[in-house]
Design goal:
The structure is a single chain. Helix 1 packs antiparallel against helix 12, helix 2 packs parallel to helix 6 and helix 2 packs across helix 7. This protein has an eight-stranded antiparallel barrel with strand order 12-13-14-15-16-17-18-19. A seven-stranded antiparallel beta sheet has the order 2-1-11-10-9-8-7, sandwiched between helices. A two-stranded antiparallel sheet has the order 3-6. By secondary structure, it is α+β, with helices and mostly antiparallel strands. About 25% of the residues lie in helices and about 20% in strands. It is globular.
Length: about 450
């Protein structure tokens, strides 16, 4: 993936540079590097550094911390798609004897397993993984802090278990499986478990003085699947394209979409913040945009990957400091700057290649009781059902080839939409999960459960 600085307007490029320059200066980061992706490729790269001379480019490695979890989740979804496991399987079925085996694989992916956030002391991010040679050293004597499946509680040990699950089912180290099944197919040649030159050094910045302290870069051992990886803005830009579109060599678009779908019950504070979690991906509603991706941190490093599917814009931001700029805000701002300055140009409208007369008969206005809905047929072969006015239940539907349709999203996801026909073949009503939709509100000639009062509509004196 090449980065062309000419793909964005000069004013947009300056606004992007201004945002990361402010973040680096105000956050006192030794260096900060960023990239923006649009139309499936990197279109901008920027960097700011406290060192005179050449700043970091898209090939300089930084540690990406918990963005590693997204890579691990991809490996688990691959096992599911191959039929090796089911996300509803308890961990015990495939990796017995952990003490946390009642949690399902989906719950581990979504951080609803009830496991603790961290491993027992000593602080795992700053000590070598050799201090935790067994899973029981990672999980501790009391792994579960909450009832399994009841609440979202971010857990690094949970992703250690998922990495061990991958190793058990693949019969190879997590790092080797990741390289073979994800990094090489996607061309992520500068992503690795160990730092490879050129790479940034990790620093702590004194909170009350402009002074630096080197941070240790330890091998996390069993905890590696939760936060070990090093990568670059160039590689993470490619990874962002994959997370938006899928790649059948690694994971289908449908499975990647599943990763981006909320899978964990949100805490009250998360609802207020507009935050949720999928299967290895963070989800946030910010400034009117739905953003997916992941943040990461380890001593000496901060990282963020942000994707707006609707805008077709993604951002990667990396810095080499333990604390400082809030990179999730920087990433969201980079996406917003491009999306607002250079909004996505819609594809031309095109008619259907073929018109199905039976399907066309369903198009138009329908009523669920007295609530008006419109059913529209679109060129991609799907149908949409949405309120005529205001908010309400809405969904797209996929044709099943037998005259019925299956809901794809929202309240009607998975529900069957079935046209019910009269003896003469005309449509009497639509049955949607037992709900009846008629052409007129409580249409007399249609089959409406409970019947229609024979005296009809009336007023009140």
């Amino acid at each position: 993936m090449t980065t062309s600085q000419d793909d964005l307007l000069p004013a947009t490029r300056r606004a992007l540079l201004h945002r990361i320059a402010g973040a680096q200066a105000e956050g006192r980061a030794p260096s900060l590097v960023a990239a923006v992706v649009r139309d499936g490729r990197a279109v901008w790269h920027g960097a700011r550094t406290s060192v005179d001379g050449h700043g970091p480019d898209e090939n300089v490695q930084y540690r990406i911390g918990s963005i590693t979890k997204t890579f691990t989740a991809v490996l688990v979804l691959r096992l599911r798609d191959e039929g090796v496991l089911d996300l509803g399987d308890p961990l015990e079925k495939h990796l017995p004897g952990t003490g946390a085996g009642e949690a399902t694989i989906a719950q581990l992916l979504a951080h609803t397993s009830g496991l603790a956030a961290e491993s027992p002391a000593p602080w795992w991010e700053r000590t070598p993984g050799s201090l935790r040679p067994e899973l029981r050293d990672v999980l501790g004597e009391q792994p579960l802090l909450h009832p399994v499946g009841r609440r979202f509680h971010y857990s690094n040990p949970g992703y250690t278990l998922l990495g061990s699950l991958v190793e058990e089912l693949r019969g190879a180290p997590w790092e080797d499986v990741l390289r073979r099944e994800v990094l090489e197919p996607l061309g992520l040649r500068r992503t690795s478990a160990q730092p490879q030159a050129p790479h940034a050094g990790g620093w702590a910045v004194h909170p009350w003085a402009d002074a630096l302290l080197p941070e240790p870069a330890v091998d996390l051992g069993l905890m590696a699947p939760a936060g070990q990886l090093w990568s670059t803005t160039g590689d993470l830009a490619r990874f962002a394209v994959f997370l938006a579109n899928g790649d059948d060599r690694v994971l289908s678009a449908e499975s990647v979409r599943e990763m981006r779908t909320p899978a964990a019950p949100a805490e009250a504070a998360d609802v207020v913040d507009g935050a949720a979690y999928g299967l290895g991906l963070q989800i946030q509603h910010r400034d009117g945009r739905l953003l997916v991706g992941h943040s990461g941190s380890l001593p000496g490093f901060l990282a963020n990957l942000t994707i707006s599917l609707e805008d077709d814009v993604s951002a990667v931001v990396l810095a080499n400091c333990t604390s400082g700029p809030l990179l999730s805000s920087v990433g969201a701002d980079l996406v917003r700057i491009v999306a607002e300055a250079e909004p996505r140009i819609p594809e031309p409208w095109r008619p259907m290649p073929e018109v199905d007369a039976a399907a066309l008969e369903l198009a138009g206005q329908w009523y669920w009781g007295t609530h008006g809905f419109a059913l529209r047929l679109t060129a991609d072969g799907t149908a949409s059902l949405e309120p005529l006015a205001g908010k309400g239940r809405r969904s797209r539907f996929r044709a099943n080839g037998d005259g019925t349709w299956t809901g794809l999203e929202g309240y009607y996801a998975g529900e069957l939409l079935r046209p019910v026909r009269r003896p003469d073949g005309s449509v009497d009503h639509l049955d949607l999960g037992s709900f009846v939709f008629t052409r007129q509100p409580y249409e007399e000639s249609a089959s409406v459960p409970g019947g229609v009062d024979p005296e009809g509509w009336r007023g009140i004196r």
